[in-house]
Structures are given as structure tokens and as C-alpha cells.
Amino acid sequence: MAELQKDPMTRGDFLGFGVMGVIMGGIITVPAAAFLLEPIINIDILGQSNVSDDWQEVGPVADVGVEEPEVFIVEFPLTQIYGDQEIQELSPEVPRSQEEFDLTNAVWLSWKAPILEQGDQGNSGDTIGVPERPAFLDEKREGFTPEEISEVEESLNILSNSCAHLGCPVRWIVNADGEGEFLCPCHGGIYDINGNWYGGPPPRGMYRYTQFEVRENGRLYIKHAYDVEEGIPGISTQEPYVV
Amino acid sequence: MIGRLRSQTIETGKFLADWMEDRTGAVTQLEHFLYEPVPKRGAWLYTLGSATLFLITLQFLTGILLLFYYVPTTDHAWNSVYYIMNEAYFGQLIRGIHYWSANFLLAVIGLHMARTFFTGSYKAPREINWIVGVVLLLLVIGLAFTGYLLRWDQDGFWASVVGIKIGSYSPFIGPYVTHFLLGGDVVGPATLARFFALHVWLLPAMIAPFIGIHLYLLRRHGEFGAEFEYTDRISKLHERQREEGYRQHEFEDDEEYDYDDELDEEGGTTRHRRDDE
Predict the structure, then answer these.
(1) Is there a single domain that holds both residue A31 and residue A128?
(2) How far apart are CA B101 and CA B55, in angstroms?
């Protein structure tokens, strides 16, 4: 082999080539890679989110009945590319270049039903009793006292309609016997009224909103944040959450 | 008159072909590329690869046409598809061809793979071509997946959500895959822009060289037997015929001249050795 090497390379040359190769390779690849991987850097490393951190109104909690959950549409303002926010800050008189794209979430609200017998994820669902709706809601829809607010907050299930399996929208279905359940149309994931796993492929119960507050006016407000469990591959196990 | 014209045309054609051949070698290359021995038995099954190539070509052509009207933004994507389907001349036909040939493409690729598998065409020396084919399959699946979202209707949107969420189940890199595809932490304008870039530039640009390698390897080893296998077999046949011819000559020589000392037993063996080489 040695005689084939017409232009023998010294150790110094080799080292030089190596160092220069790394520098030149870095100059070529790093900007392109960073350009492409911007979302990963922003979200997974810097922990930023595209979704607005403001409170969004869901609706009056008194609308939620005992037997069935109630669905509310919540639109979260979203900033994603287009540079609209930056341009607005620089020159507010310029009209927005694009129509705003809001992130639409469907939120299911139900009253917590007491768990009589704890189920086993993957084998059997919980045995539950009748959902407990705070009694004072029959009389008043607004003007809650702090005690009433905390009572409502404690007894409310605030669930995302995004199935914990692959993200299809789940719906409340009542069968012939009058028993209801959350059913996912894609692969038949089933959840009970508390949003806990009851059957099908989902690896956990429905996603719950973790940041919420009920105000004096009797309405619920939420932020875009979910109870992501470590080790269960949801759409993301990292904050801020994706659903 | 007509006869002369015809002969003149033929000569001009020959001249042009020779001219090109001398300068580029294109004619030989073309012949080499187009002609190929194919088995008579089950010949139709061997057209599945060409069918795949044809459908991919259709995808490229109709895709280029669709790009003239499609607008990849969240507020115009669906509207521009609506325009193509209802207003643009022959828009329904062109998008229909893009849509249906994409569907048939996956089916035909499946049949093509099955044919390759059941005829054992993946065996040595064609393993690399099988691997390149699998890469092509994955690229086509990627194209089908990214193309789905571009319509920006409920169907494509939710299919993409499910697809991205399947990606989130990948071990270790799940969230990174998700965020890379989403272009953010939720589905939004960035997702559409990214899928558009993948569907229109990145994946087609990747698929083209792999198609080239696939075809080159196909021509190298042949569909039914490599070209070199053929030349090998044919040269062996010629050799045998020559040998038989020599033997006959020897036989005749023997009769005519008796035995010459120089061509004694050794003569026969040396000649054999030369043939074997």
C-alpha cells in the first residue's frame, strides 16, 4: 500500500487537515442545522412556547350538568413564524400581514365522580359513583364567594379532547343503556366521566389542564398547560406542552 | 422521388446519430439503457418497476403544475386548493391525477416489492438495490404523509396530528421529532410551511438521486440475469464451439498429414490450456 501513496502525508499535515476539516465543516453545517432545528432549540432547550400565556375564558361552570360533561371551545392566540409580532412592535400602524391563526382547543368539563374502586391501567377502569355537582350552582350562576370558588375548582374535571393515544378528538357518547363514556373515533380509546382510562389503546387518562381558575363571575379561565406524565409517550413529555 | 427522399432521410438520421455518438456516446448509452433481456414467463410482472417510475414522473409533473396555484399559508392553503378544484382550467384533472397517482403509487410499490420478494430478486448480487428500494419506499411514504397536510382540511389536519403523535412515540428523540415537524409546540402556520418545504423540495430532491442509483443498479445486474452473466455465458459457448472446431481440425489434420512431431500429444494440451484462459 505504501508505494501507492504518491503524496505521503506527515502527522502534522494530518492534524492540520483534521483541524481545518472540523472548522470548515462546522462553518458549513452549524448555521444550516441551527436554521432547521430552531423549534427544537426554542422549545426543548430555551423552553419557549408559541401559545400565549394569558388566561383564556372557557365558560360559565353552572352550564355543566351532573350526568353529562359539557364541551367548550377555547381559542388560544398563537404566534408562529411570519414575524407578525415583531413587525407590530416595530410599527403598530402596519396592518397584520396574515390572518391570525388561533389554536383551537375543545375543553370538556365534568364534575368529579367519586372513585369507589381504583382501576388498573390497561386491565380495568375505575368503578365510579354519581358525579358530585356543588349544590349552590342551582341557585346562582355568578358572584361566588372564595369558599364556593375553591369548592368548584376542587370538584371540576377540566379535560382536553385530544386523545392520549394519538391525538384524535374524543366525544361523549351515550349508549343504549344510558351510560356515557368518552370515545375516541380513531382507535376506540374509552375514558370515564372523570377522564380516566377505561378501555382501548391510550396509555393513560385524558390530558387535564393544570392551570385554571374560577372567578367571581362564575366563569372558568385556563392556560395552555397539561398534566404530562414522565415516561408515558404523549405528544410531548416536555414543557411547554403540545396537544 | 419518394424513395430518394426516404433514403436521404435515413442517411441524415444515421449521420446525426453517428455525429452524436462520436461526441457524446449517447446512442450506445441509450441502447444499453433501453434494451434488456426479459424473461418471457411472467413478463407483465416485470413492468411493475416501470409503472412505479411512470407514476413518480406523473407526481413530479402534476406537482410542478399545482405549484403555480397553491399557496402554502394557513389562510390560503385550503382556498387555493378550492380554486384549483373549481376555477382553474383542468384543475380538477391535474389535482386528481396527482392525488390518485399518489394512491396508486403506494399500491404499485407494494406489488413491485412483492414481485421482487417472491422471485428472490433481492438475493446476491442485488442486495444493495433492495436497500435502495426500501429507502425509496420510505421517501415515498414521507411524501404521502407531508402532502396530506398541505390541503389544510380537517382530514389532512387530523391525519397529520396522528402522524406527528406517532413520531412522538419514538424512543429518546420523540419530543425532538415532534417539535421539528411542528416547527413549534403546536400545529400552526409553521407546521404547514415545514411540510410544504419537505414535500416540495427536500423529499423530491432526495428521491431523484436514489431513483438514479436504483436504475443504475438494475441495469448493472439486469432484471433476469446480469449483462455480464450473459456475456460470460455467451463467451463460454463460443469457446466451446471453437474448441470443437479445433478438435475437428486436428482430426482432419491427422488424417491428411499423419503425425507431425511438433504437434505431438503436447500440442493438444497446450491448446487446451490456452482455451481455458
Answers:
(1) no
(2) 6
- DSSP percent split of chain A into helix, strand, coil, nearest 5: 25, 25, 50
Residue A230 in any domain: the answer is no
**Residues in chain A closer than 8 A to B71 (CB atoms):** none
User: In chain B, which residue's Cα lies nearest the Cα of A187?
Assistant: B162
Do A180 and A173 touch, CB atoms closer than 8 A? yes
Check A99 against B174: CB less than 8 A apart. Answer: no
Does B22 score more than 80 pLDDT?
yes
Residues of A within an 8 Å Cβ radius of B: 36-40, 42-44, 49-51, 78, 80-82, 98-99, 101, 103, 165-169, 186, 233-238, 240-243
Residue entry with cell 463467451: B235
Say whether both A125 and A162 belong to one domain: yes
Minimum distance, in Å, between the CA of residue A237 and any CA atom of chain B: 7
Judging contacts by C-beta atoms under 8 Å, the chain B residues touching residue A82 are 189
Domain co-membership, A19 together with A115: no
* Percent of chain A surpassing pLDDT 90: 32
Which residue in B64, B179, B151 sits closest to A242, CA to CA? B179
The listed range with the strongest mean pLDDT (A33-37, A233-237, B164-168) is A33-37
CB contact under 8 A, A237 and B175: yes
The tally of CA atoms less than 13 A away on the side-chain side of residue B176 is 8
CB-based contact B105:B56 (threshold 8 Å): yes
Same domain, yes or no: A17 and A103: no
Task: State which residues form the domain around A19.
Answer: 2-36
Q: Which residues of B touch A (CB under 8 A)?
A: 73-75, 158, 161-162, 164-166, 168-169, 174-176, 178-180, 182-190, 193
The answer to whether the CB atoms of A235 and B180 lie below 8 A apart is no
Domain membership of residue A238 (yes or no) is no
Across the interface, do B168 and A233 touch by the CB < 8 Å criterion? Answer: yes
ipTM of the complex: 0.81
For residue range B168-190, list pLDDT tens digits in order.
888 888 888 888 998 888 888 89
What is the grid cell recorded at B230?
Answer: 450473459
User: Is A240 inside a domain boundary?
Assistant: no
Per the domain annotation, does A229 fall within a domain?
A: no
The mean pLDDT value for A202-211 works out to 89
The count of domains in chain A is 2
User: E strand or H helix at B115, and its extent?
Assistant: helix B91-118
CB contact under 8 A, B184 and A43: yes
The grid coordinates of residue A191 equal 375514558
My answer on whether A15 and A58 are in the same domain is: no
